[in-house]
Amino acid sequence: MTANFQETLKALGKQAKKEAVEREAEAKAKKQVEDVDFSKAVGKVTPLKNAGNYYEQPRDKSPIKPRPKEMATLEQEDYFYVGSGGWEEPPASFSKNGQGKNDLMRLRNGHYPVVADVDLHGYTQEEAQQVLNEFIEFTKKRGVCGEIVHGSGLGSSGYKPVLKNMTRRWLMQHPDVLAYVEPRQGNDGAVRILLKRQRRDDDWKQ
């Protein structure tokens, strides 16, 4: 049964939001206690003259960076990224393994069970790469095969498949990705990926 990666991301987001609300409530309660203790310690306060003359820190006018749509579980420094540019049109299939032809054939034939899938529609390139990092980790914990829907790019400006090209370039360079193929003939809006099999602790003991 295919694991729903996006539902897991939503659950992580809800859990993080709940924890944030609880922390905020605890902080408010603590501040109220501190304010009462401070008032007792200081006693009566007399305001200074010319109270309007105070330093105001300059406002930060730098642009706000977009936040990812869902909560991420990886540390930012662990994310894998690729820059813009590169291949105008990455290949429909790709393999970096010595058994490349066999890997591609097995991927197409459904030899490897798809354990997770993700839809990248609506994400910017930066956000999509963050989600892809999370998706790779999510898939590795459950198997070696996942499916990514990136779209054909027909709705992009100039009909240039920006997200599709970026996703495939990202997969070609990611160290844990062995291969990808278009799972359905005539549909270039998705790829099925094969990951390196993770070595478990039990394997080292044998």
Automatic annotation (TrEMBL):
Coiled coil: none annotated. Residues 118-196 form the Smr domain. Residues 16-33 have a biased composition (Basic and acidic residues). It holds the Pfam family Smr. It comes from the Bacteria. PROSITE patterns: SMR. Residues 13-33 are annotated as: Disordered. PANTHER family: DNA ENDONUCLEASE SMRA-RELATED. This is Smr domain-containing protein. It comes from Neisseria mucosa C102. The lineage of its organism: Bacteria, Pseudomonadati, Pseudomonadota, Betaproteobacteria, Neisseriales.
